[in-house]
Structures are given as C-alpha cells and as structure tokens.
Specification:
The complex is a heterooctamer, with four copies of chain A (about 260 residues) and four copies of chain B (about 70 residues).
Chain A: E1 5-7, E2 10-12, E3 16-19, H1 26-36, E4 40-47, E5 67-70, H2 78-90, E6 96-99, H3 112-124, E7 128-133, H4 137-145, E8 152-153, H5 167-176, E9 182-184, H6 190-199, E10 203-206, H7 208-211, H8 216-236
Parallel strand pairs in A: 3-4, 3-10, 4-5, 6-7, 7-8, 9-10
Antiparallel strand pairs in A: 1-2
Chain B: E1 2-5, E2 8-11, H1 18-24, E3 33-36, E4 39-40, E5 56-64
Parallel strand pairs in B: 1-5
Antiparallel strand pairs in B: 1-2, 3-4, 3-5
Classes of the chains: A alpha/beta (about 260), B mainly beta (about 70).
Chain lengths: ~260, ~70, ~260, ~70, ~260, ~260, ~70, ~70
C-alpha cells in the first residue's frame, strides 16, 4: 500500500533524505545517492574562490528527479541564514531550505532563538522551511506555529554517529508532531535509522554515515533497507516489550511427559 | 570601471551584464548564484542586469554539504 | 556478491531464522514465513492427544524448500532433550536440532551444564546441533569444542522483545566465534535485528516479534529487510562512533564572509 | 492384546504393525513420530514393526514452536 | 578539604538542592530537609484562597539557616514569571529565583525563548536567577551571557524519575559551563544523582524522588550520601572505562604452576 | 536500624567488599581499605620466588579485624582451584574462598562447569564458598543447591569499569536469590555501585576502580558512601519510574490567575 | 469603600492599611505577599500603604513546590 | 639429602622440619603456605613435619589480588 512522505503538500516515496558532504569523489556520491533511493538531497552554498575554481560543479552529478535542498550551513545568525536562502532561491535553487543556524564551531549545535527568528522570516518570504534543531518539544511547537514544513531534531552531535542519544526528547516530539518529524544528524548505522522510524519519525536525514563508510554505495543501500524496515514495522504494529519471559513453544505435551 | 567580486576588484566594461561578467570569469557553465549590493539577483535577470561602477558582488554556488 | 550463511557445510541465502509458534492461524504463519524469506524454520515436538487431535498438521503449511529445525522445547534435562531429538529424527524430521534444555518455567532460561552434556551426546550420535544458551563466551567455546554447528545466545528473555540487553557478552562471543553465532530470543523489532547483524552476528532467529505483530506478514518482511540492512552495513564498513561533532558541510566560504 | 499409547490402554490385534495402529487411530495421514518401549521407531520401519502385548508407545508430531 | 558550591558569590556546603512539593505532611518534609543537609530549598508562590486558608504556613516548617528559593512554577510567559518573582521579593522572600516558564501542561517542559527573555529582565532588575531549562548548550551560553547565576537542565521529564536520559547534551553543558550547572528534575534514585555528580555537575536538585519515597527521611539521607559520593569520586579521579578485561590479581606464580 | 550483611551465618556491617590488587603501594592500600570500611578483603595466593622475595608481606598491611578472603585467581580448572583453597586454609588463612576458575586469559571470564564442580567439592570439604560467575540465573540455582554461601556475578568484564552492562540477567538473579548476591567486577564508579545496591544486590566487590583511582583513599570513601546510599534507598522505597511528567508544584492558584 | 482581593470584593474602612487588611482577613500571622494594582508592595510598607476605593489586590504566599 | 622447593633443588639436613626449612630460606617471618608432595601442611604442624629425601614442596603466600 502507498505510504508517501508528505512535506508541504508534496509527496515523496522515500523517507531517507541524504546529504552530499564528505564523499571522496562526486562519482561515488552519485552512485550512493542512487542506491539510497533518496528523493531529497541537501547541498551547501558557498562563495566561489575565483583564484581556485575547485572541483567540478556538483549539480552535474545530482540526479534530475531529486529535490535539491540548499542548507544554510556556515550561518551563525538569522540574518546570515536568510541572506543565504534568498541568494540560493534567486539563483535558481528551490524555494525549500534546510535551516541551520549554528553559532558554535566546537559542538556545532543549532541556536534555538535565531533559528526560530529566521524560520518565521523565511516562511513569511515564501520559503518552505525545514529547520534543524536540538530536540526541544517546546521549540518544535513554536516552529510549527510560524509555519515550518518539518522539524528536524538531531539524534546526537552531527558526525558523531552515536545514534538516538536524545531519544526521550525526540519521543515527545513525535507524540505531538503536527508536521513531519525528520531525525537529522548523529545516526551512525542502519539500525539507528530503523529505530528512529520504529519510534514514529516520519523520515531520517543521513550524510556522514553513508559518505564515510568503507563502501558508501553499499551503505546507502543498507540505510534504504533499514528505513523501509523501520517504517514497515511501525505500520505492522510492533509487539509490546515485556519484562517477563513468554514461551514460544507449547508448555504441555512434551515427549517425556507421562 | 570596476566592481568588487567576492571582495576582489574586477575591471568591467561599461554596461556589462551579470551574465557577461560570469562569462568572462569562466563561470558561464557553472551553476552560479549572484548577489549584487546585498540583494540577490534572479537568474532570469542575469542577462538584463547591468553592472555599475563600484558594485559589490557575491558569486556563490551549491557545494557538497549535509 | 554472494554472502551465504554456512552451517555444517550447508549454505543458506537468508540470515533470518524463524519460529512457527504463536501465530493466530497456520495460514498467517505460511504467508509470514514466505515474506520473511527464511530458509530455516523451527518446530516443536509434542505428543498427540488421542482424545483431541487438535489443529491441522503444521507440516502441511510449511514450504517444502525450507529446513525444518525441530527444537527440544519442554525438556528440562539432557536425557529428555536427547530422547526428543532422536524421536524426531527417526520419524523423518531432519537430523538437525535446536537444542533447548530449560529447567525453570518462570524465566525460561537454558541450563548451561545440561545443554553442554546433551550437545556432546547428540553430536556423537550424528546430529547437527544448534544449542540455545545464555550469552556465555566460555560455554560457547565448550560447545564449539564438542562439535556444535552454531551457538545461539539469547538477546533478552524469550518473548520479552527487549532487544540486545546482554550486548556486552554477545559482543565477546562474536569476536571469538569459530562457528556461526545466531542471536536467538528477545529481539522485539527490526532495529534490534539490524543491530545484532551490524555487531557481527551471523544470523538471528525471530518468532514472537513476528507472530504477535499486528500484521505478522508485514512484520516478517520488515525483519527480512532489517537483517539484510544490518549485514550489508557490516560488510560495507560502519563509521567509527565519535565523541565529537564533525561538520558535514564546508567550514569556510560562507556567503556572508568578507 | 493391548498396548499403551501415550499412557492409555489400546486394544490391538495380534501382529498389528505400527503403521496399522496409526491407521486405526486415524493418524495415517498425519506426520506421526513413534517411540516404542523407549526406543524411536524409524519411519521406514512403520510397516514392518509388529506390536507386542504390553508395548508402551509414544506417538508425537511436529507442532508450532520457536 | 573544603569544596563549597559557590553561586553568585555565596558559598554552600551542600550540593543537594531540594524541593518542598508533594510531601504527605510538613512534619515529614521538615525531617527530610534536615536529613538531606540541603541549604537551598525551593518553594512555589500561590494566591491565598480566602475561603479556604488551606494548610499551615510552610515557612513555619522550614529551617532558618537554609536559603528559600522561590520558583515561578505556574507561569507560562516571561511576564508572569517576572511578576511572580517581584511579588515574592517585595513580600520578603530572597531576591533569588528559580525561573520556570512552562507553557505546556502535558509535558511540563520549559520554554527556551520566554525563559531567556525573563532571565535577562530579572537579572536587570537585580535578581539572582537560576533558570530551569531543557538541556541545550547554546541556550546555556545565552543564559550565561545575560548574567544567570546557574543553569539548571532537566535530566528527564519532571517527576518521571527516569534519570540522566539526556546525558549527552548535559555532558556538553558541563564541559563548557561558566556558571554552576545544576541538574534539576527527573532524577529518580541516588545512583542517578551520583552519576550526575561524577559527570561533573556542580549540584543536583531533587524533589519527587525524596517526597514520594516510602520513607522520605531515609531517602533524603540516601541522596545526601550519593551526592557526596559522586562529588568525592569526581575529585578523586575516576578510572577510565576500558573495553578490555584486566586482571586484578597477578598473572604468574599460581600454586599449580611448575 | 541495624541491617547487617549475613554470609554463612556471619554478620558484617559493611556491604562493600574490596580487593587488594593494583595499588601503587601497600601504604596506600592500607589507608584505602580503612576508608572503605570494608570488612571482607580479598587476597590472591602465589608461589614465593625464592630468588626474588619481592615486596613486603601484604598481611602486615591488612587490618586485623577484617576477614581475609583468599581467591583462586590463576586457576583454570576445578582441581587447581581446590588445591589452592586447601593450601590457603592449611597455611592459616580462613576456610572461606572466593572461587574463581578462569580458563581464558583474554576475556578473563569464569568457567561455569568447572566453577560448579569446584564449588561442590569445596563445600563438601568444609569451605565457605563464594563463587565468581558470569550472570546466569540457572547456574546461580545450581551453586545455591550445592551449598555456596553467596553467588557473585560480574557486572562487566573485570577491570573494565563499565558498570552494570549485564543488568537484565543480574536483575533476575536478585529476584530469585536464596543466598546473598554480590556484584563483583566491572563496577567503575560509585554510581555503578549505588545502582547495584538499589537493584537489590546484597553487596558489591570493588578493586580496580578504587586502586587505580587518582586518589584511591578518597575513592574508597566515595564507594563506601555510595553503597550506603544505594542500600538506604532500597530500604526507603524508591519511587516508580514514570513515562509521564508530573508537576512538583501546585497546578492552580498562580499569581497571575484571575 | 471596597477593594478587590484575589478577585473578590472586600469592604474596607477609609484609610485602612495593607497590614490592617491582612489582620482583618486573619492573615496577620501568615507570610503574606501583596500586590496592589499590579505593583508588588514592599513588606516594610505594609503598615504605611493605605488602600483606596477600587484597589485591586493580590494576596499570595509561599507554598510547597519543587 | 635434597628436596625440591617450588621446582628448585634444596639441600636439607636429615630430620629438618618444615619450620626449619622456612627459617633457613629466610621465610620465618613470612606468612608462608606449604604443600608437601601435593598435600597441604597444616600451619600447626610446621614444627613437627620432618622432610624426607626427594620431598617436593610448594611454598606460597598471600599476595595482592582482587
């Protein structure tokens, strides 16, 4: 049966969003994105260094049928994020934005106040806004109220691969979510992604765990399978955890019984 | 006349357009994003918008990111 | 690339073993087994009640191409388990046996001493023995020494669905395993199965989590995907967990930078 | 003569085989496992093995289990 | 050696702060507070119901030598919290305030934006402000910048007794704290409090786990011991966790060795 | 109120057992043992190297009023352990023995079969036997049946300091224990010890975490406090963990309410 | 004349002080916190501050809380 | 005559006791545990037990351990 992810009225068949960072080559990235089945792919926006044009144009390696999602990485204030989003849109990127406002270079955690401020302004300006936040159910409600299209809490510090360390706060966000909840950052392996989906996350966003795997293409496929496994399990109805042991074979009629 | 592109002086001919500048900078083929004097320039207007002396431009592009 | 599970020289394409207990109907069981892709399926052995022949013959609902694995559930001593295994073999079931010796009806945990004794005798008698044990790396070595074909530690009490609660002991068993390590009992959801496979388990055995799901057929499929995801990830090389945050976008060249 | 099957007395005719008994018990079609006086009986010999007075039999089968 | 907790220049011998809520009787509360050794004790502020004066005056049961810390529980906006704090101070309570701004009655989680706004205003107005927050290292920095005397992240939802569920975020807050970090809410047992102190929290605040214990007075003593144990351990230098086993007895010279 | 630990009819005031291994000096060990309040102290037994008498006689540094508990470390079989225990007793050490049978030098995990065999023989020979085991509730019952005075499951691999990693199996052992349950090995910090006591362990045995601390004497005191905290909490009645948040302040009568 | 205390009308005599009102309300012995027309009243001024017709008062106190 | 102590040959005088040997080995003051020909020797009998030619002894002691 069909079970699309719906963000801002647009349907997506895949619940695995992927980033394009940290791949060894664009060729590997292209193959991994294909293997992931991802339909939403993030990119960053940076100045061109005129003295060093650097590597090829990433857009040449991105499938045409995916939604490019520019992020505002590198921005430390609402103003910088708004400026970056508007530049990306004017230049021909979609009017969707993965909103990141990260003041601290050490822990790379998002700023709740600036993120909320930027989100309100960008929604006002016609953007479809997907904000990246620390798991905070109260902030989630505020972001929903200003019109964000999703809320994207981190599972653990970005790039750490530690999994759902802040599970208790994310569980509350899932319970009360009114727009899709996307777990973003910190997922290190497919089992982490499957757990997030089983908990009821609407989607997950993965970058480092795929890009830095020994074999990124195989790992992309593994995450694709895990996300589908977790979503399927949620819909199939997962058994209740019990404290007690319960036999799976009959308790009577053993061969030796008189 | 001259403009600043990503902080560096660039000589431009009078009446040169954004598209023309990108071409001269070898960025014609690139997916370039342009901000002029703090305001983003619509891609559709790269051909129309004519630079003026002292303009300050930012030229960016999408790159790999998460 | 091919990556078969090899037990006692026999190759299996699927790394998901399933039990047949606790399904509402044999029809549902049949569909779920098919959806699971499982090639090894456990059954129990019980006396026929002559006054109440009970339900249909389960074998009529089991695919011909799977290996039926009789278990010794209900046995509390080595002798009872040996007797049950020999009866099953003589009557036409395979000479493979899932060895369970469980003295305690409350916690349903296996007896390490009796299990070892029965394993040695059954191997001697020509059986391919797959013993069910509490995670115990020293017992594992003894079972390998007497010739067991796998060792099958439980993740958590059977039927509890609590997942890899005894992870630290299982990790050691995986490190030192010389025969396939199958995580059996206690896995409650696909993410649990994926984690076991990512840790390096050779296979998992699942029953209750599938049979008692809201939709057992869909859940069987979810476990199949999760086991494949976990195995694929292990082979692809999972990123190291880090304590620190690491950016997935470039640290320089932000739009606002002078 | 009589034998015990799963603990219950069963009259059987002299020279009846295991297969015959299973048939009479309505288990012919079933996947039955048979133990006679504590020793398992090979399926291949169900037709040959003749019961004797006082035999103690266990008749079992595979059932759902984990 | 002396190791006082210093908040806003004032020294406290005890690192266990306690709440006064949920005790069956004020007599039990008085005994428990004494047993806890606590030197900072929270109270709420509420209107007097003129038709039902309710129970006795709590202040009659509070030791003279503790610092009464009025909280702003019940406030859903910065304005309400500021109003409550100013009323308490004018009426003779200390000019210290445990700042709580909690809009949502279901999860009882604090509002980061309103809390920051109220904190800035109250510091401006001369209060010593101890804000209660979800663990958020970026918000922590903002609260420190506006002059808060401590930051008090919750370990888990208040009253849940679940312990350090948001450990990873709290660990970062401890690493970068410039004012005392007090773990507040969610600690259910002394081992939770000891763990928080071992991690480097400067203090903990406990209410429900003591007040709702079978024997609140004994539990207060248990928390007192645990906080001292955890703090002492931190200063004594806790061993590194290892993945490997390391013998505690000599590896050679066994009796049976030739 | 008095709450002694009773082993084999003998009462002990302290529930913290300590080992003597891995201290930098015997002087530090002596002070740490005193600070721990421990009344049961383990020692190993080793051949004297006649060419190198080695350090001083440890017994000169051990308080007279503690029970010396010789262990059988270094023994890989039941026979070796029995021989070591009998030598220790004949030479004037107590007829109590911490039974360790550890075949594998890498993981240092005990052998369930040999340990059971040795335990039965030593009880028969008049010893008070305290066996060290992997958490295994079935083995526990067998050890109780042959007359062991305690059962001592490890929390995690010895010397790892990882804490109660095998919590689920230990919880079952505590539920069904008929002789004192002592958690031995793997506890890395006082909060680990407090948690074990809160779970209902009768005592804990600690060595590495104290001996290898930066300040072993202070750490010994910290463990003493933590064990008392955990035990006191257990007896005081620990609150139930809840999934929901529950306010600790009144829900009505806020100042701002009309 | 009358004032409102915690939302309820209360008759008061002309010139009555905050302290006097608390006394009459039986709150003299209590640790009472007083807000008058939205502004907190300093405890030191309970004796001085005289109520006026139509004043709106909040009378609160510390209670058990976490 | 000679005995083996912890695997090493040791000359002893005829009739020497366990206690005497420990003394000569400089272990008199130590908390020594003694096994003779595979059997433990009771501390109370160190003074009585006389060594014989070819005896095999193990001399051990308590050491630091967990």
């Amino acid at each position: 049966m069909s079970d699309p992810l719906v963000i801002a009225g647009r349907e997506f068949g895949s619940r695995l969003l992927t980033g394009t960072g940290k791949y060894d080559t664009f060729e590997t990235m292209r193959e991994a994105l294909a293997a992931s089945g991802s339909e939403i792919v993030t990119v960053a926006v940076r100045r061109i260094d005129l003295d060093d044009r650097g590597d090829d144009d990433i857009t040449a390696f991105l499938p045409d049928d995916v939604l490019l999602l520019p992020n505002t990485s590198g921005c430390e204030t609402a103003e910088e994020a708004i400026r970056t989003a508007r530049l990306a849109r004017a230049g021909g990127l979609p009017d969707w934005v993965k909103l990141e406002v990260i003041p601290d270079p050490r822990y790379l955690l998002p700023d709740p106040v600036e993120t909320l401020r930027a989100a309100a302004a960008l929604v006002e300006d016609g953007f479809t806004v997907l904000p990246y936040v620390l798991p905070d159910p109260v902030l989630q409600k505020k972001l929903e109220e200003v019109g964000c299209a999703t809320v994207m809490p981190l599972a653990a510090p970005i790039g750490s691969g530690r999994g759902l360390k802040l599970r208790d706060a994310i569980r509350i966000m899932i319970e009360q979510a009114e727009v899709p909840l996307v777990v973003d950052a910190g997922l290190g392996s497919p089992s982490h992604a499957a757990e997030a989906m089983e908990m009821g996350a609407d989607a997950v966003l993965v970058n480092t765990a795929i890009a830095r795997a020994g074999d990124p293409v195989a790992m992309a496929r593994a995450f694709r399978l895990a996300v589908e496994a977790g979503r399927t399990a949620l819909r199939a109805g997962i058994m209740e955890e019990g404290a007690q042991a319960v036999a799976s074979s009959p308790l009577t009629g053993a061969v030796h019984q008189p | 006349m001259t403009v600043r592109v990503n902080g560096k002086e660039q000589p431009v001919e009078a009446g040169e357009t954004v598209a023309g500048l990108l071409e001269r900078l070898g960025l014609g083929a690139r997916f370039a994003l342009v901000e002029r004097n703090g305001e983003p320039v619509e891609r559709a207007r790269y051909e129309e918008v004519r630079l003026e002396d002292g303009d300050s431009l930012v030229v960016a592009r999408p790159v790999a990111g998460g």
